[in-house]
Amino acid sequence: MVGHLIGFIQLLRQAGIPVSTGEMLDLLQALSLLEPTRKNLLLAMQATLIKETGQERILEKLFDLYWTTLKQKTRKQEQPTNKTAIPIHPPRLSREEFNARLAQMKEWLRQALKSEDDLPAGGGEPAGQGGGKGNGPEQGRRERHFQHGSTVPLAAAGQRLAMIIAKDSEEDLKALAREAVFTLVPPAEDTPGEDPRQMLKQLKTHLDWAQVKDWLERSPLGGAEKLRQQKNLLRLERLLNRELEQLRCKRQPEKELPAIAREANLSQRCFAELDPEQVIQVKRQVARLGRRLATRAGYRRIPATRGAVDISRTVRLAATIGGVPIILCHQGRQATRPDLVVLCDLSGSVAPYSQFMMLLVHTMQNKFRMVRSYAFVDAIAEVTVQLRELDLERTVRNIQRQTGIWRTGFSDYGAVWHQFFHEHLHVLHRKVTLIILGDARNNYKPSGEEYFREICRRVRQVIWLNPTPQESWNQEDSIMHLYTPYCRHVFECRNLSQLTRIARQIF
After folding, report:
1. In what order do the strands lie in the sheet with 330-336?
2. How far apart are CA 225 and CA 233, in angstroms?
3. Helix/strand/coil (H, E, C) string of 67-82?
4. β-bridge mates for residue 135, sequence order
5. Which stretches of sequence are listed as region Disordered (predicted)?
6. Helix-strand-coil percent breakdown of the chain, rounded to 5?
7. Could you tell me if 159 and 167 are in contact, meaning their C-beta atoms sit under 8 angstroms apart?
8. What is the residue extent of each domain of the chain?
9. Cα Rg of the chain (Å, integer)
10. What's the CA gap between 462 and 191, in Å, rounded?
11. Looking at residue 417, what is its pLDDT?
């Protein structure tokens, strides 16, 4: 039992839930006081291991997958030792699998009858079609998505999905998720693993997800009813993910369980890959980080009569007296509130990352004496006032629409540096820290390096945060190598873990 608990604790740590040795001892002590049941084990873990909002759902998901997989593995290892232990009758299907197969057979019959009704009286193919299968590229696309099982017409699938999310029935949502996964994903355990995102995309295509979502947004339903159905759609997406995760663990438990745990670790997930619910959780953690950093005093070095040796001042003084450092100069620390200027790229590829940086700066405003925020795409505009609003996502959309930074829709760093140099250079001085968040993809336009060099020369330090992988910085239209020499620090910043580490280092 202890070995299984240690394996599960390792999964929790991979999922971003820190578990100390003391907490594990608390868990063992709690289990010694409870009856050894699965429910009590889960309750003990929730009481001793969960510390933050959002961790409970991750714990419950991994708990269900881990112990179910362990139970299935134990069953496989238990082989019958004599003939009397071998069942005479074959095992029966579960209710869920039986209903899924029954629905599949009904759909086959319905499609077969419909095909016969569409045929002309003399037999052969329907009018206007040849003897081949399919209907051009669309049919080919559908056949690639439907690996096996029925091919439900898009209209029928969309109507069924719309009916189920309107009914607000958890059982119907679960049944639809099971049926979709069983119909489209091969059940064989030796099937090679696929990308989970691609599998989910195939399921959504099968269910006409995009069409139903678009219909729901444009429907004349009331606000409360529309919100209820949108929540049901999100619930169905979670159920689809859960069914896929269970299937992955059934196929390759040793490989897929750690992979699912890593996928649940929000601190390692790329900002652009977060779903709406995960975005809310990450924003909460970013705001908490900002408040924590805002209470930490900032310091700068000043001349002092004692303390650490100031090497640069000592060497300069020694140069005036023959080069021998006879007199040592010292430096001390003085609390200060620096000035901060932030430039965020809001083009389509970088906007998901910029809103988290803006949230961090907004939360930390009290730490700085002066904060000026700018947004740019192919033009630049100051957005300091707009960022004081609480709804940052709506603020970002309003900035893109109302400030005029979106002219052609493509990033133009050269034009941005030119405009900033001529219109906003007065905000820069030697006490300013300039932070730039952008991917430096310039769409093969002039770099404006001469303007960027002058901008960097006027500030205390320049810190560039690039949300793209470091190996792609100098590929294709990326000109990161032209700007790097003028920056004190250049960091890759694409997830919460990297943002936390960078913020603690520079603030």
Report:
1. 298-304, 330-336, 308-309
2. 13
3. HHHHHHHHHHHCCCCC
4. 137
5. 116-147
6. 60, 10, 30
7. no
8. 2-72, 152-253, 285-296+338-506, 299-336
9. 30
10. 51
11. 96
**Pairwise CA distance, residues 299 & 507, whole Å:** 10
Place of tokens 């995760």: 245
SS3 392: helix
Asked if residue 203 lies in contact with residue 180, where contact means CB atoms within 8 angstroms, the answer is: yes
To the nearest 10°, the Cα dihedral for 298, 303, 306, 307? 40
CATH top class, domain 285-296+338-506: alpha beta
Residue 189 and residue 73: Cα distance in Å, rounded?
Answer: 13
Task: Report pLDDT for 297.
Answer: 61
- Measuring CA to CA, how many Å separate 218 from each of 79, 197, 210, 223, 343? 57, 27, 12, 12, 36
Token pair of 459 as six digits: 């500030």
CA distance readout (Å), 198 to 110, 122, 185 = 29, 43, 11
CB 338 within 8 A of CB 308: no
Q: Are 138 and 198 in contact (CB under 8 A)?
A: no
Q: How far apart are CA 434 and CA 428, in angstroms?
A: 9
Mean pLDDT per 10-residue run, the chain (507 residues)?
A: 87 92 92 90 93 87 87 63 57 76 78 58 39 41 37 59 84 86 66 70 84 81 83 88 86 86 90 85 88 70 82 87 82 76 89 86 78 92 81 74 82 95 94 93 93 95 94 90 95 93 86
